[in-house]
Write the structure tokens for this entry.
Amino acid sequence: MSIFTIYHGHAFQPGLETCREVAPDITHGVEYQNPEFCPADAFARYIVDNGAYSASQDDSDWDEERFEAMLSIVEGWERDPDFVVCPDVFGSWDETQERAAKWYPRLVGKGLDVYVVGQPPASVSELVDHADRHGSPGVFLGGPQRWKYQTASSLVDRVGDRLQVHIGRPGDLLRAKNAGADSVDTTSIYVNNSWDRLRRLSTQRSLSEWSDT
């Protein structure tokens, strides 16, 4: 059984095959958010991010049209995304809820599985209510890493496996796994050829399982 799923940002097939070779006990997929970096069709399981975080780092407005273009591309693929990240506003919980109210029904209407986004200072109760209100199968946690780890752990304690928990850009993969996350996304492993991060995760997992037996 897989630990959890790692979605690698804009990875192409050769790089993803290397990820699988280095850490075969982990499920690997691809994260897409830019239409310019998409293959002709899906070659692996994948998610569609909304690009809100990238826009915040560039100090630019979120590009709604680019997100819609990305959705149009994957609609033509035989394989559906594992989930689409509902548009949010990085750093603002109130605005994230407002944007979700607009976008969630539109995305579900396309037949897509959609994860709502949690931003601080949302409480666990607020996140659960937010997901239940929209009927979302999972919560994508953004914001500072420490908040994401703590919130993921509390969410899992609260809801068990009723909701999937995804940590965006976790930094420490093992810490994200230990917090109970079902999946994470990262660009640094693929872009920087940081295969040792995957090796360490597999090794630490094996040692942990051995010590628990």
